[in-house]
């Protein structure tokens, strides 16, 4: 059973790291959107390509643009914080139960 415990604990760690990285990618994308970035820049294309699918889904459900300010990244960041504070500790507690 220690193999399953280690697997679930490692899975929780990987999920935590991936969520943290995605949160920082969202922050960088939001900061870059304040300036007029070159849409052909590879970094801007990468950031747009990795964040646009989730941002579009949230925008369809909750249109949160007020006077040119898009609050959708903040909603996604709050969702990531929720997952980090709920899902990761839950997985770690499940791992302790084995």
Write a concise keyword list for the protein shown above.
mainly alpha, elongated, single chain, 98 residues, 4% strand, two-stranded antiparallel sheet
Write the layout of secondary structure elements.
Blueprint: H1 2-33, H2 42-61, E1 65-66, E2 69-70, H3 72-97
Antiparallel strand pairs: 1-2
Helix pairs in contact: 1-2, 1-3, 2-3
Euclidean distance between termini CA atoms: 6 Å
**What is the 3D form?**
elongated
The helix content is: over 70%
- Main sheet specs: 2 strands, antiparallel
Secondary-structure element string: HHEEH
Q: Given the structure, what is the number of helices?
A: 3
Structural class: mainly alpha
Strand order of the largest sheet: 1-2
The amount of beta strand, in percent, is: under 5%
**Low confidence ranges:** none
Any overview of this molecule?
A hairpin with a 2-residue loop joins strand 1 and strand 2 (69-70). 80% of the residues lie in helices and 4% in strands. The radius of gyration is 17 Å and the shape is elongated. The protein has helices at residues 2-33, 42-61, 72-97; strands spanning 65-66, 69-70. With 98 residues, it is mainly α. The protein has one domain. It is built from 3 helices and 2 strands. Helix 1 (2-33) runs antiparallel to helix 3 (72-97). A two-stranded antiparallel ribbon has the order 1-2.
Summarize the structure.
The chain is mainly alpha-helical and 98 residues long. It has helices spanning 2-33, 42-61, 72-97, and strands at residues 65-66, 69-70.
């Amino acid at each position: 059973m220690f193999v399953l415990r280690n697997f679930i604990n490692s899975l929780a760690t990987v999920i935590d790291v991936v969520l943290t990285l995605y949160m920082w990618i969202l922050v960088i994308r939001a900061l870059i959107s304040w300036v007029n970035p070159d849409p052909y820049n590879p970094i801007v294309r990468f950031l747009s390509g990795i964040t646009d699918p989730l941002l579009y889904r949230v925008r369809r459900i909750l249109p949160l643009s007020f006077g040119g300010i898009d609050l959708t990244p903040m909603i996604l960041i709050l969702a990531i914080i929720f997952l980090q504070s709920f899902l990761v500790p839950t997985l770690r507690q499940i791992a302790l139960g084995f």
